[in-house]
Structure prediction request, 332 residues.
Amino acid sequence: MQLLDLRQMPSRALEALFEEEQRHWLEELHWDYRASVQLIKKFIDAKSLAGFAALEGDGKEVAERGILAALTGPAAPRVAGYGFYVVEDYKGLIGDLFVSARHPRQPVARQILDEMLATLHAVPELERIESQLIPFGLSLDGDLEELGFRLFPRQFMLLPLSEARFEAAPVLSGLRIEPWDDRHFEACAQLIFRAYEGHVDSEINDQYHSEAGAMKFLKNIIVLPGCGTFLPEGSFVVRPLASERLIAAVLASRVSHGVGHTTQICVLPGFQRQGLGLRLMEASIRALASMRFHALSLTVTAANSRAVQLYERLGFKTVKTFAAAVWKNPDA
Prediction:
């Protein structure tokens, strides 16, 4: 295999690979990945997406004919896999890593991963690298541990809405539950920051370490398409009757036709274990069902056993497991 920088390639050279990846997302996770692929293509064609693609063969044809001619001609070598990453200030994020089933996945994935990490480790003052890959047909856990990452097992869970189990949990006196409104943005960022202090998920995602980071996270799941199309109708907050301060929130998106995804649910520490998380999930599930959705998915860190048990009570089942991985620079 030969590795090429994604910034040297046209996105159409990866078309077959994108189609295969989209099928996996839809068939295994009920997730329409087309919007994400369109965004990836846009950045590749703008030559602004850092990453690598693995090509069949030894690269002789590319060297002789040039990249564009070799990759778009009638006998173009197949792209076996690709991965990309971004750098934000002091942090690197591995955004995706996919290898076609037509090739030996593990060695190709490791080759791409090694190249991405070598580049990231050369970034001055880089403090950490985060990755939450949902690989299809391979596991990189052993490779990531060997490379110095700490792993946090996570579960992708799915609920057919027709099988949801409700407990009609009451809302505490003095609190009200209401649909999402954009005026809640700042209060919700404050809620997320406070809810995740000392939480295992703050080890996985350092955006939870500050209100500014929580606001950036919130905009990522509400404004950008990486977590689907935000559904204000399926999102709810809990607040005191006489205050705009938020006590709890659940946010949902549409990820494919009839399928929603819970992108965030959190409760202030002083109000946990009082049924608010359950009440919010039930409200979101009922709202999605009224909009003719037929399924809802979410991801949860396995170590967060109380959350896992809550989702199982509602009828969610784990359909895939994966690892969130974090590397910290020992010299930072």
In short: The first strand starts at residue 2 and ends at 5.
